[in-house]
Description:
The protein is mainly alpha-helical. The protein has helices at 3-9, 36-51, 63-97, 100-107, 113-124, 135-157, 164-191, 199-230.
Amino acid sequence: MPAHMKRTLFSPYLSPDGNQLRFSARVFETDANLKRDELLKKIRAELPSELGLAPEQFQLSGMLVLYNNLLQSLFQSQILSLGAVFGAILVMFIILFRSIKLALVAIAPNLIAAPMVLGLMGFLGIPLDIMTITIAAISIGIGVDNTIHYVLRFRDELPADGDYGNAMHRAHGAIGLALYYTTLTIALGFSIMTLSEFMPTIYFGLLTALAMTIALLANLMVLPILLKSFKPFGAQA
Length: 237
């Protein structure tokens, strides 16, 4: 074989000692049915069974493997980090409110937004990627901030007559409006991303705005009901 043909056809894919050979294959990353992790597992399983290769005789590499490893790492860290975050928030609530009962009541609404958005993504077939996987953390951050504002305002309003129902109406009329306008402004800001031509950016903008809206509704609807039902401040009515 002429040297120039050898350099073109073999040299880029063959190690200098001739003991290793690299095969390159293209994968359609834009295919809606592509499941990277399942594809790589299938290749690793069929290379030994179909070609008789030992596991130590081959190694998969490339951008597909790198991106899949990155996503799998994000999935695992997301689960661990969300558990750690809720634990840290509960401890912070206990220190801030000085009441375990109130801390448990306050953290409950924050358990709603992230699962609802992630469940909706699964129902609609929207994949988790580097951008959409951060939505849960953002919704928790906004939700916790709203919870603290509402609980503190509710606590300030309650001593006026000791009635949880009246305190709820006064808190809604004061801090409730502030939370509404703040969340609406931020949600509209994230919605601007829908003007992008990059689908992950569009998903991120829409789902983040939705998560913030759900977090707001949880704090204005679920949290007052829990406060009135469990009466963590010990009022009479």
